[in-house]
Amino acid sequence: MRRLIRAVFVLVLLGAAGLAGFAYLGDLSPQQHEIRVPVVLDAR
After folding, report:
1. Alpha-carbon radius of gyration of the chain
2. Global pTM?
3. Residue 20 falls inside a structural domain
């Protein structure tokens, strides 16, 4: 039983480390592009 708990604990730690590493090293930045929209002002 102790081996099972230890194995689950190690897997949780490895998963957390992998998630943190992906968050810091993964390219999660959004793609940016310019959008031009004409604006009509109600000038009287």
Report:
1. 25
2. 0.55
3. yes
